[in-house]
Amino acid sequence: MAVDTARGGGTAGAPPGGTARPSGAAGGAPPAGHGGGCACTDCPHGVREGRRRALAEFRRRRDELAAGGGVPAALAHSPGASRQWVSDELTQAARTVAERTRAEAGFRLGRLWRHTAAAVWGAVALLLAAQAATAVLGAGWTAGRTAALAAALVCAAALTAAARLHRARGGVLAPVTGEDGRLSTSRTVAAVWVLLASYSVLAVAAGLALAPGADARARLLAGLDLGRGAGLLTVLALCCAVAVTVRRTVVLRVRAQRLQKVRADRPRAADLLTDDSGRGSFTDVQYVAVCSVAAVFAAVRLARRPGELPDLPWGLALLVAISALTYLAGKYSEGGRPVILSVVRSREVGDLDAPIRTGDDIEIRGSGFVPPGAEAPDLLARTTVRIGTVHVHVPLVPVAGGFANPADTVLTVPVPVDVEPGRVEVQVITAAGVETNRYSIDVLD
């Protein structure tokens, strides 16, 4: 099964040429003379252009080698030697563009905090516009509108400060980004409810400060009664507990080698709805959808009565609870340790059937050899097979548009001459560092 390397921008290529300029301009717009075909390593445009060039060159080189061209004549007579040379060439190119990809991701994260801060203040501006429009159409500007706007300003200022503090990690997105560099669905959902509850309490606090008399303050304090906010507090506690439980579960499963994790280059919005491979995840989608609907309902209730906690109906809270349990069950069931099911001698057309000898190719069949999110060539090149005491790096075998080896269910590697004849054990080590079971084979001299 070929692995498509065009996805995710994680492919690799040879380093394009470029001139460097003095540092200090990172994060800003490229000055005059650094547009067009600039490939400098210190400006965002140059890093992006350099990665684009390297990726295009890598794909051209990969397809050329897949078609049988570009191999030195001295190696053409030996299929094993030519295959190893092709694999080494592509591996080196993959590592080079992986560095370019990480550099571009660093530039993007460094500038992302400004976009997140702008989005926060844009939300405040929308709130102000909505308050002004309803004030014109309604009873005019009230103390409740002032309290709601003051609470929004406090929240926006706190989020902007946090974005500035974590500007190297994506600004506001830093607290909801997992250790694997992807946006965490559970943390994001919990953060939405925390922000909604915090804003509600701040609106009440601002209203208390602006309340004209004791009766008004008493009504505002009554809005914080447990009977009114029990549904909201239950959903908040449940989502926060799910976020903590999921993090603990993932850490323990990774350490126990029951879950494979590879780091992403940068967080993306699609991470909230997909798995590590970029495929849509039912458990994630339903959790985000149900919680989004419940949060919108709570926000509407808060807009109608800004001086009290939004009273979330218990039926809606139960719906969120069912969705959260489904999401948590999905996290417990996903993944699994890679496994070797069988090992056979690889036979070319016309070869005679024979036992496994040193120098032969073996085909390792199983599942989970390519972890989710590890389809990039530099990660594929990390796949290793231990044959006895010898570690063999799985060669990259290019085909048009991707790679035929390694694949998630089958690996083909040569048996080195350093392997001692006799009964030896075979074990696969994936790009995530997870080891498979040991499978015994007989090797003849």
Structure notes:
This protein has helices at 44-66, 79-137, 143-165, 185-210, 214-222, 226-255, 282-304, 314-333, 377-380; strands at residues 3-4, 339-345, 361-367, 384-387, 390-393, 397-399, 402-405, 410-414, 422-429, 439-443. Residues 1-32 have low confidence and may be disordered. Helix 2 (79-137) runs antiparallel to helix 3 (143-165), helix 3 packs across helix 4 (185-210) and helix 4 runs parallel beside helix 7 (282-304). The protein contains nine helices and ten strands. The strands form three sheets. Strands 5-4-9-10 form a four-stranded antiparallel beta sheet, with no helix packed on it. A three-stranded antiparallel beta sheet has the order 1-7-6. With 445 residues, the chain is of the alpha+beta class. The radius of gyration is 28 Å and the shape is elongated. The longest helix is centred in the N-terminal third of the chain and has 59 residues, at 79-137.
